[in-house]
Amino acid sequence: MGEVLLVYEIRPETTKVTPKKLEEIVRLKLPENVKMQNNPEEKPLFFGLVGIIGQFIIPEEDGAQDNLEDVLNSIEEISSIQMTFITRL
Q1: Which tens digits make up the pLDDT trace of 18-73?
Q2: Which alpha helices (DSSP H) does 1-89 contain, by range?
Q3: 54 and 78 Cβ atoms separated by less than 8 Å
Q4: 58 secondary structure, DSSP code
Q5: Which residues in the chain belong to E strands, given as ranges?
């Protein structure tokens, strides 16, 4: 079974959530079969909000992407996520 690289723009709910804190929160909630790249890129958004560009490696299996997105969307400190890139590894 292969792996898939997914890249998401992750936007915080408020300016009180720093990019580093956002990364820590996401890492704590990730399923065991998902790996996140270290030191995600910071993405300035608007009105002082700074999001992150997170790169995730998931197994190439049915439901893995949906599971990751469900986890990310369930995090209270995240306003929204948007996939920007996907590829097989």
Answers
A1: 999 999 999 999 999 999 999 999 999 988 899 999 999 999 999 999 999 999 99
A2: 19-29, 64-74
A3: no
A4: E
A5: 3-12, 35-36, 41-44, 50-59, 78-88
Tell me the sheet residues that pair with 6.
56, 86
Question: CATH classification of 3-88 is 2.40.30.20, yes or no?
Answer: no
Q: How far apart are CA 48 and CA 7, in angstroms?
A: 22
Are the CB atoms for 59 and 80 separated by under 8 Å? no
- What is the phi/psi pair of residue 2, to 5°? -90, -170
Whether pTM exceeds 0.90: yes
List C-alpha distances in Å: 85 to 5, 18, 79, 82. 8, 23, 19, 9
Amino acid at 22: L
Of 88, 13, 24, nearest in space to 54 by CA = 24
